[in-house]
Structures are given as C-alpha cells and as structure tokens.
Amino acid sequence: MEVLVSQPLVVPFSSLNQVLGKLSFPDLKILNSGVVVTSPVVTYAEIGGGLYTLSYTPITTGNYSIFIEGSVQLRFSVVTKTVQSFLRNLEDEALGSWTWNKTSNLLTLLRQDGSAMASFNMIDGLESGSRERLA
C-alpha cells in the first residue's frame, strides 16, 4: 500500500481481547525502514466492540510498519508520488491537449480536464525546434 507523505492515514484495528474504552495504546511502535519513529503523533478513536482507529500522518518517506499490542497492524510505503499519480500524468500527457502562444513562445500542456500540467519555453527555428521546461 502506498501513502503520500504528509497525508493523514487512518488504520482500523481491534484491541487484544476486544477490550472496550481504551484511551491509549502505550505499546504502540511505528517503524520507518526498521527504525523506531520517536514520539509519533497519533490519535485513537473507538468504533465500538473493541474496534478502534489510529490516525497518523507520516512526515518522511520510507517503508513503515505499525505494531499495536504486539501485532503488526499495517505495513505501507510512504512516497512523494504514487504509482497512480505517475499513470495519471502519462495518460494526461498522451490524451490531453496543448497550446502554443507563438508571440510569447509559451507552450502549455493541458490535462484531460483542461487544467495546466506543465509549461515550456519554445525555441522554433527553420530547421529545428525545442522546448525547455519552466519551473
């Protein structure tokens, strides 16, 4: 499972023996690539019947594991871009449109929904042309 960095994650889990009314889980361990995350900021909510959720926002990339009450509750990767976002960019580049303002030499790639994807400075000569990505 992939999660974007700095995006909140909600993990459902059940307490050992489905104990009701717990406010915290002191044995919580969050590991990032095998290293314990010190002082993670988490919140818990009880769903009912010994079922809870843990909310956590990872702030660095890596391969995470969440342990609660001695069990692995979730393993996930935190990334800056998901595979889904890469695929969306490929599809938008292939099927989206573009505009080229020849007065300003600005080429704008448009997503399928019409929003701007990227802008380029165009260099157009008699024998060749090129584009340079703008920041």
Explain how this protein is built:
It is a single chain. The protein has one helix at 83-95, and strands at 2-4, 9-14, 29-32, 35-36, 42-48, 51-56, 62-68, 71-79, 98-101, 106-110, 116-124, 129-133. The chain is elongated. The model has no long low-confidence stretch (mean pLDDT 94). The chain has two domains: 2-79, Immunoglobulins (Immunoglobulin-like, Sandwich), CATH 2.60.40.10; 83-133, no CATH class. The chain has one helix and twelve strands; from the N terminus they run ββββββββαββββ. The two termini are 31 Å apart. The chain has a five-stranded mixed sheet with strand order 1-8-7-3-4, with no helix packed on it. A four-stranded antiparallel sheet has the order 9-10-11-12, with helices on one face. A three-stranded antiparallel sheet has the order 2-6-5, with no helix packed on it. With 135 residues, it is mainly beta. The longest helix has 13 residues, at 83-95.
